[in-house]
Design brief:
This protein is α+β, with helices and mostly antiparallel strands and about 120 residues long. It contains five helices and five strands, in the order αααααβββββ. The N and C termini lie far apart (about 30 Å). It has a single domain (about 5-115), classed as Roll (Nuclear Transport Factor 2, Chain: A), CATH 3.10.450. The model has no long low-confidence stretch (mean pLDDT about 95).
Length: about 120
Amino acid sequence: MEVTDSDTINIRSVIEHQLAAFKKDDAQGAFAFASQAIQAQFGNPENFMQMVKTSYPAVYRPRSVFFEKVTSIQGNITQPVLLLSPDGVPLRALYFMEKQPDNIWRINGCFLVSLEGK
């Protein structure tokens, strides 16, 4: 799948808006940027928020955020984002993005990769 400049801008915007929602503890807002599959997996915004708080502190409260170039990993459009976790550990978050039938992008998963020892 070809990713246009406008796709790249929209993908970045979705992730930025979700990060902003986490920062405000806006569970409903953050949940809205997740794909239907992710929403179905967690059932409601509160469960989703609790999982992010517990398992993804670097996504929940990053000290810094730097967007890298959109790429494709195993056929998934992926936005790599460099994050600095609350305790100062650098991580790369791989956001798997999914284009909806209405051409809106949603987050279909996020995978954290350690940058230690690279």
